[in-house]
Amino acid sequence: MKKLSTPLIWRWHLYAGLIIAPFLIILSITGAVYLFKFDIEDYIYKDYYQVEPAETRLPPSDLVNTALNTVGGGEATRYRPGEDDSRSVEVGILDNNGDSLTVFLNPYTRTVLGVINDDTRPMELLADAHSELMAGTLGDRLVELVASWTIIMILSGLYLWFPKSKEKLKGVFTFRFNKGNRVKWRDLHTVSGFWLSGGILFFILSGMLWTGFWGNGVQQLTTASGFGYPPSIWTGPAPESDTVTKEIADVSWAAEQLPVAESEMFSGVNQASINDIVAVAESTKIHPSYDIFYPGSDTGVFTLSTFPHQAQEEATIHIDQYSTNVLADYRYDHYGPLGKFMALAITIHKGLQFGIWNQIFGVIICIGLIGMVVTGFWMWIKRRPKDHMGAPKSKSIFHFKGPLIILVILGIIFPLVGLSLIFVFLLDRFVIRRVPKLNKFIYG
């Protein structure tokens, strides 16, 4: 199959690379910076985060009222006590204008340290650029499509790289810098691609878990396949609810599809104080970096959520807003094998699981991917004839059973790839091949 299909694989590798190259550079740059999100925010907001510990903390309810008065009213949506004695308290508020704000307070003195509009946080904007290209649902689908085609590009690149029996190690596993510019650029592209391919595939697949189409499908499949939520996490029977946890709180990936039980309303009983909910949170012994999300309705629940740097410390807890009974307690130990793998993959993707070494590894992958894009584009520019794209001539893919079957399988696993293949086929058949100049430029 090698002799027959190598030109075809090369064509697909070239065209895919040229189309997705700009997006890969954007995703790599934003991803490399986002690996240091917590370090950057610790520096930017150091005056908001750090407080001098004292003997007595004020009640959470007092701090929430202070925050609401500071912004002129609104609705409290989130409370974060802080993970240690020197960390400020955060109160999330939906103000009267509909803006999402975070108020930082000294829990010992009630001093307001600062107010931030959550939508304008630099790292939130960066995350939006990385995950959605700042284009909402359309951007999310585009990122997923680019990621899916990057997988195809990596696999096709490995196929083209695969050494022949007579080749030596140099130029296959090691660089050759003394063989002229053409060989040097080729080795920088292909040898780097080989050594980085595993890391790139890992970061792409783990990043796709956040996508709205493929990632959501994997979540549902994980739950439906028996790797979902064990009955033991609920104090009663599992709720039959159309509301899932990601709709009411910011939680870990594994808990996003967790059904939400309703709080049991009693006549004359008011919602529990945030003081009581903090006391319940402390009794559960979850990681101290937790957030408390307020109920969104009369039957809603308080949700405790923490997904710190180590996946093993993730937790999502639902609390009845009237009785303060724990309705669900879902932690890493409850995850199935697939859920645990996904949780670890996500924390590694975010550069958190293994500290600075994790961040360094991520930066190397991002820089390496940019380097592969640049070297590949430079080689194409140097080799491309003036009058056409410069891809080798090849028969249609329908003449090659192996590559066709692989593309069909990838189109099923990644549905957006399948849709894009149909689009490319129709574009080729009814547009490119019917316009002589365009046909000559693309196919030579």
From TrEMBL:
InterPro entries linked to this entry: PepSY-ass_TM
The transmembrane residues are: 12-36, 142-162, 194-213, 360-381, 404-427
Name the UniProt key words of this record, in alphabetical order. Answer: Membrane, Transmembrane, Transmembrane helix
Q: Which domain of life is it from?
A: Bacteria
Task: Respond yes or no to whether keyword DNA-binding is given for this record.
Answer: no
Q: What is this protein called?
A: PepSY-associated TM helix domain-containing protein
The organism's taxonomic lineage, starting at the top: Bacteria, Bacillati, Bacillota, Bacilli, Bacillales
